[in-house]
From TrEMBL, chain A:
Listed CDD domains: TPP_TK
Ribosomal protein as UniProt keyword: no
Cofactor(s) the protein needs: thiamine diphosphate
Family as reported in the entry's similarity comment: Belongs to the transketolase family.
Keywords: Thiamine pyrophosphate
Protein name stated in the entry: Transketolase
Pfam families: Transketolase_N
TrEMBL record, chain B:
Transketolase-like pyrimidine-binding domain: residues covered: 9-174
Species this chain originates from: Waltera intestinalis
Pfam families in the record: Transket_pyr, Transketolase_C
Keyword Isomerase (UniProt): no
Protein name: Transketolase family protein
Family annotation (InterPro entries): PDH/Transketolase, THDP-binding, Transketo_C/PFOR_II, Transketolase-like_Pyr-bd, Transketolase_C
Cofactors: thiamine diphosphate
Length: 280, 314
């Protein structure tokens, strides 16, 4: 898929995020928006998947370790055809299958997650299982930069590095903000790249909003043998919605009706720009 | 039979042996440990099937997640550590990464209860049954001897879903080695019939209950002993039938009286057939260092202790 096409999809995914969180009157837009391009690339380009057959045996797996950004995952899944986009506003509603955090019973969701630090371990187990049975699928997991303050992340990293799980791609959405403030002021996990290197990962730093960079990073990860890869994605929290960008206030808050209108207008504007770019 | 001629084996040993014996029959079985393979006895399995034994190092939280991931690609993981670390330290991982998605992961937790002995209170887990039975969909078993431990491991492998099995460190008498022995998840067994009082016991305390019943018999008290291996789902029928017959129930477990077998039995009786109950177990206290035998005696979990508790109750 061409970059322009991916950008359009990512913008749709962002609209879905804002719409879902607005419908829920709760949820986590900031970290969903910062990872929207990553979700888009994974589901529209990178992973071997089939929305018509979500449980396909040899599919690539994805575990959203930073499970609170479920709106981002759900929106990508919906736009990729796993379930109707119209269901997104039912997020977090009683009776909806779109639970506040990823639940394994949702089409396309490979593992329940959301209690931070746990998703990466499940991804490591999947990658190990693939190795034990000589199966070719790859396993992807996305962590938050605040999330890696959890000790379990480093237990998992130690294990994955030691076991040389080169079918595992760990991604860190490094938007530099967690609930209580900038991560380097709360309990800094920096330097993130050096830490994963020390745990025997091949580490790539990449711009989370540049599809050339994203594509190159995943290619390099796929071609890396003998060790797992960690891509540290440098991202902008709230990306695409003017008043949410780089604002810690929008980590876990839903826009009201007025704010929702502004957010959608921001994204409509981006959509028009992308359409215009396509005509040129 | 004289004490020294009774065959004794620790249920952790039964666990390691049965993993090895069932490996061929269950080719998807893999065993995970956290640097305790010699103690949990999964080393027995490792020696025979090194490629199917995964040592996760001293990192139980990650180990539970790895097991979850393995189960999602078709493996049947048996995860091992001491009860303190499997159920205690990694509780939330068991709840969220195994229980909530209802994965086919089996947890073999050894060194449960005070019979860990000399290591003392930090390693004596008297809370694991309570913790595990609060997780929706989790099967919780506590075998009484070698025969039952082996049967429980097989049953766990045949069952689809999360299972917690509690094993002990100390060698305990084999009490179920008789023709006609049958094991089923969720089914208790009346191991001795009686009419004056019901003693419901689990794990190594079943032997103590049988010993107590013999002592009571000498005084003309007829005690019925019910062995509950599966604490969840509980065999309510067997407990209610016995309670209706005797009208008095004593529960015995090598576990806190809060949240374990005693609580489960009380939940059942309160709802369906209230009778007086006495709960024998760890009375909301931590254990301490000492030999397993000395500790069991001090905390009233041996035959004499159970006998005394029943006498005081009647």
């Amino acid at each position: 898929m061409k970059n322009l096409e991916l950008q359009k999809r990512a913008n749709d995914v962002r609209k879905g995020i804002v719409t879902a969180v607005h419908g829920a009157k709760a949820g986590h837009p900031g970290g969903s928006l910062s990872a929207a391009d990553i979700f888009t690339f994974l589901y529209f380009e990178e992973m071997n998947i089939d929305p018509q057959n979500p449980d396909m045996e040899e599919r690539d797996r994805f575990v959203l370790s930073k499970g609170h950004t479920a709106p981002g995952l759900y929106s990508a899944l919906a736009y990729r055809g796993y379930f109707p986009v119209e269901d997104l506003p039912t997020l977090r509603h009683l009776g909806s299958y779109l639970q506040g955090h990823p639940c394994i019973h949702i089409p396309g969701v490979d593992m329940s997650s959301g209690s931070l630090g746990q998703g990466i371990s499940a991804a490591v187990g999947m990658a190990l299982g693939a190795k034990m049975e000589n199966r070719d699928f790859r396993v992807y997991t996305l962590l938050g930069d605040g999330e890696i303050e959890e000790g379990q992340v480093w237990e998992a990293a130690m294990f994955a590095g030691f076991r040389k799980l080169d079918n595992l791609c760990v991604m860190v959405d490094n938007n530099n903000l967690q609930i209580d403030g900038p991560i380097d002021q709360v309990c800094s996990p920096y330097p993130i790249d050096k830490k994963f290197e020390a745990f025997n990962f091949h580490v790539i730093n990449a711009d989370a909003h540049d599809f050339d960079a994203i594509r190159a990073a995943f290619k390099e990860a796929r071609e890396t043998k003998g060790m797992p890869t960690c891509i540290v994605f440098h991202s902008l929290k709230g990306k695409g919605v003017s008043f949410m960008e780089n604002s810690v206030d929008w980590h876990g808050k839903a826009p009201n009706d007025e704010e929702y209108a502004v957010a959608m207008a921001d994204l409509d504007k981006i959509e028009k720009e992308l359409e215009k770019a396509g005509e040129q | 039979m004289a004490e020294n001629t009774v065959k004794k084996i620790a249920t952790r040993e039964s666990y390691g042996n049965s993993l090895k014996e069932l490996a061929e029959e269950f080719p998807n079985l893999v065993v995970l440990d956290a640097d305790l393979a010699a103690a949990t006895k999964t080393g027995i399995f490792r020696k025979a099937y090194p490629d199917r034994h995964i040592d996760c190092g001293i990192a139980e939280e990650n180990m539970m997640g790895v097991a979850a991931g393995l189960s999602l690609v078709g493996k049947i993981p048996f995860v091992s550590s001491f009860a303190m670390f499997a159920a205690g330290r990694a509780f939330e991982q068991v709840r969220n990464s195994i229980g909530y998605p209802h994965l086919n992961v089996k947890i073999g937790a050894t060194h449960a209860g005070i019979t860990v002995g000399e290591d003392g209170a930090t390693h004596q887990c008297n809370e694991d049954i309570a913790l595990m039975r609060t997780i929706p969909g989790m099967v919780v078993m506590c075998p009484s001897d070698d025969v039952e431990a082996r049967a429980a491991v097989r049953a766990a492998l045949e069952y689809e879903g999360p299972v917690y099995i509690r094993f002990g460190r100390a060698a305990v008498p084999v009490i179920n080695d008789h023709p006609g022995y049958h094991f089923e998840i969720g089914k208790g067994t009346v191991v001795r019939e009686g009419k004056d009082v019901t003693i419901v016991a689990t794990g190594i305390c079943v032997d103590s209950a049988l010993g107590a019943a013999k002592m009571l018999e000498e005084e003309g008290i007829s005690a019925e002993v019910v062995n509950i291996c599966t604490i969840k789902p509980l065999d309510e029928e067997i407990i209610l039938n016995s309670a209706k017959k005797t009208g008095k129930v004593v529960t015995v477990e090598e576990h806190s009286v809060i949240g374990g077998l005693g609580s489960a039995v009380c939940d059942c009786l309160c709802a369906h057939y209230p009778v007086p109950v006495k709960k024998v177990g760890m009375q909301d206290v931590f254990g301490e260092s000492g030999s397993a035998a000395a500790l069991v005696e001090k905390y009233g979990l041996d035959a004499k202790g159970v006998y005394k508790s029943v006498k005081e109750f009647l």
